[in-house]
Amino acid sequence: MLFIFNIGRAVGGFGPVAVGALAARYSFGASLALLASIYVLDILATLFLIPERRGAELE
Q1: φ, ψ dihedrals at 55, nearest 5°
Q2: H/E element holding 6?
């Protein structure tokens, strides 16, 4: 589990680099719009793909 957590942190660390590269190539507004759309996609995936566990026993 710790390995997966650290991989997520490493990938997330490249976010500022990606936004900076996109801002240099296109514009800052376009890079922020892409980032916002990725966040919305993540929220929708979380809402619809992760099952509800309320009231379930912990393992």
Answers
A1: 85, -5
A2: helix 2-13
Say if 56 falls within a structural domain. Answer: no
How far apart CA 43 and CA 11 sit, in angstroms, is 18
Does 58 fall in a domain? no
Task: Give pLDDT tens digits along the chain (59 positions).
Answer: 667 778 878 888 888 898 899 999 999 999 999 888 988 998 999 899 988 888 888 77
Count how many domains the chain has. Answer: 1
- Lookup: tokens for 57: 């026993």
State residue 14 phi and psi, 5-degree precision: -85, -5
31 Cβ contact list (under 8 Å, min separation 6): 18, 19, 20, 22, 23
